[in-house]
Amino acid sequence: MNRRNFLNKSYLGLSTMLVAPETITSLGNKSISSISKNSETYAISTWSVPEANMKAGRALEGGFSAIEAVVKGVAYEESNLLNTTVGKGGAPDRDGVVSLDACVMNHTGDCGAVLAVENITHVAALAKEVMEKTPHVILAGKGARQFAIKQGYKPENLLTEKSKKAWEKWLKNGNYQPEINVENHDTIGMICCDNSGNLSGACTTSGLAYKMSGRVGDSPIIGSGLYIDNNVGGAVATGLGEEVIKTVGSFLIVELMRGGLSPQKACEEAVNRILEKQKGKPNFQVAYLATNKNGEVGAFSIQKGFSYTFYKNKLNKNIPSNSIYK
Ligand code: ASP
Known about the structure:
Elements: H1 3-16, H2 21-34, E1 42-46, H3 50-61, H4 66-78, E2 100-105, E3 111-117, H5 123-133, E4 138-140, H6 141-150, H7 161-173, E5 188-193, E6 199-205, E7 226-229, E8 233-239, H8 241-246, H9 249-258, H10 263-276, E9 286-292, E10 297-301, E11 307-312, E12 315-320, E13 322-323
Parallel strand pairs: 3-4, 10-13
Antiparallel strand pairs: 1-5, 1-11, 2-3, 2-6, 5-6, 7-8, 8-9, 9-10, 11-12
Helix pairs in contact: 1-10, 2-9, 3-4, 4-5, 9-10
Bound molecules: aspartic acid.
């Protein structure tokens, strides 16, 4: 059996569980009305980010709303210079420029995003300001930077000596290959549930290391890197953004959960949608993390090595995700 057949076979069961769109709507309405609010607070984040996730979890315990908690949580990694995939210290593009992407979405379905922003560290907070203070959803590039400065953000040099050295080393070959599970895949997607049972999420990244200038991935794209529907659940993505965008991954997961799938099964099905388009074994990583209104959590990835951080009842755990390839 070749690999393609194997994948088709192993996922046949899952795909046939999918129901027609009309059924999804009626099932969805039923499941929404029967959902009881989960008022136990929790925070989940892609990858091993104990400090960021704990910060969010504690903010929730302190009574902060989910949207405030996600922004506080991811801010930790945005200013963590050791994290070369988010915020200050993030890897630059091919021209040596660090440009950041982020988005947020709250329990009312409101959202904000900033794309390709230079010199501003806390881009998730900035995306929240776009949501709250402008009539728009997305601000990009120069406009986003100008808006940040008007809001009182201090422009900073985001390229650290370490990232600069790594880029200079990369320039010697300039060979652009998305690598699996190394430092160019580490976006933080975070979802929080607050004590009113409301869900919000944030996604923040410096994008793929040594991307083309102007390249924007899935992370700041509502529906791709992040999606929240407070009646159903939420999902976040990390990995090769181009593949997530092509399948509108996070929105897909929420819609699959609306149709009755668990967060786990919905993440598996969304990964499968990507694999269906691939010939042979993909050499890239995509990983999803999702939660529903019952507080269930699921995660799944193409390649091994993905994990997520889960804070609940004062316990912060790093949980390995299952994957297609072991
Ligand atoms: N999803 C991000 C992007 O494509 C990369 C990542 O997750 O590290 O920009």
